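Cross-posting from the chemistry board since nobody answered there.

I work mostly on the small-molecule side, so proteins are not my area. We synthesized zinc ion and want a rough idea of how it might sit in this target. Sequence and SMILES are below. Is it possible to get a predicted 3D structure of the two together?
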Amino acid sequence: MEVTEGAVTIEVPEERHGASEGSGSGVFYNPVQELNRDVTAAVLRVVDDECDSYLDAMTASGVRAVRAAEAGYAATGCDIDEAAVDLARSNLERNGLSGTIHHRNVNAHMHEHGHDVVDLDPFGTPIPFADAAFRSAREYVCVTATDTAPLCGAHFESGVRSYGAVPRNTEFHPEMGLRVLLSALVRTAARYDLAATPVLSHVSSHYVRTYLRLDGGARAADELFGELGYVDHCQRCLWRAHERTLVADPTAACPECGQSTWTAGPIWLGPAHDVAFVERVGEAVPESFGTASAARDLLGTVAGELHRPTHYDQHRLYKRWGEPNTAMDEFLGALREAGHEASRTHYGGTTFKTDAGVAEIREAVL
Ligand SMILES: C[S@@+](CC[C@H](N)C(=O)[O-])C[C@H]1O[C@@H](n2cnc3c(N)ncnc32)[C@H](O)[C@@H]1O
Ligand SMILES: [Zn+2]
């Protein structure tokens, strides 16, 4: 089957969606991830002044490597599956592009070779590849994680094992997943005296995607540790509080309703994106991309999001209060009128962030 993405056309053997990832035969290609790849292609356009080489660490059909080569990068792909390697090579050829595809365990490759941009796109957790990625990357590491259940605490033990943090299945679970992933990546990079700063992150269609800019130096890495900490959450009234610290000091009971709280961490509490960077990426999405309008919408929402952890869901709050919902614009307007900051978030149409606590939100909008 032929598929066109951006300015390239590639051959993929079969269509497989996220739900059946890793099963069956044939080289993997997930059409649902076109948005992820379009955003990546736009990021590559933005960073092309500082970056020349790109590693598509798990290349499968080669689609990411082919798109990077088309954007003018020295593209390298790796895969342990021989059929994937053959297909990726033929997909570069059919587009008249040069690039190198290795039949190799990419961890070994990354320990031996440097690339300006390293892109991890594995089945499930990226953690088995994270150390090697930070050894290899000079400027940016891009990471997809599809193991959202462990990340957000729905599969608790697996999340603890993979990420060395306590995840909790809260009502802000997509953001929990992102912040658990960022915490693990920042701590992994720090082992090599690297500061990995997230410049763009999104949670879409059951995957988490983040782009981290690398700066060298123990001091820079230490500074990022100041953005790690814990969040306490009340499942009953949806109160939450966060604290930047490496020593957990959980709140025993919710100060609003007295219910015992859940604590998650250490999670990343700093910004998950850089506004100027996200805006530049949004401007770099050409009309010709298959997901252009969805990608621009997503990036516009991300750019407008308050950095503050963590987001609320307006419908869940009203449900707890036993009151009918109002329109989102009216709701956010009422928060702002009461003197609070408020923004939509990309986690869902009824999600928002604010500097107001649950009691203040209720007072402002009811
Ligand atoms: C999710 S797919 C990659 C999808 C592709 N990047 C895309 O955008 O369509 C994961 C790929 O990683 C490959 N893989 C798994 N472990 C690997 C390893 N240790 N080294 C290299 N490739 C590996 C698999 O064979 C599979 O083709
Ligand atoms: Zn409470």
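Reply from a structural biologist on the board:
Welcome over. Reading the output above for you: The first strand starts at residue 2 and ends at 5. The chain is about 40% helix and 25% strand. Happy to explain the token format if needed.
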